[in-house]
Please model this.
Amino acid sequence: MRLIVGLGNPGPDYAETRHNVGCWVIERAAARWSIRLARKGVAVRGSGRARSKLVELAGMLDWMNVTGPPLKGLLRELNLTPDDLVIVHDDLDLEPGRLRIRPS
Model:
């Protein structure tokens, strides 16, 4: 199983800013893979399949700079390791529309 987590910031001040790109990716992935998202604890979550791989999608509902402890709890709840985790977030060092993938 893969846990794909989208980070963002809550509230109307951030709703349409690039800080929420992680949450937007989770919403698009859920639509593409027909995964129903529902609020569960600290995230909007849903489980399903992406091709043949089981995935858990999670859009965190708190400020991106305080998601470490809840994310650790989510990994523990799902019995996953950091190797099973994909985090999607914005990076102000990149131009909008650019993507960088890091293995760590």
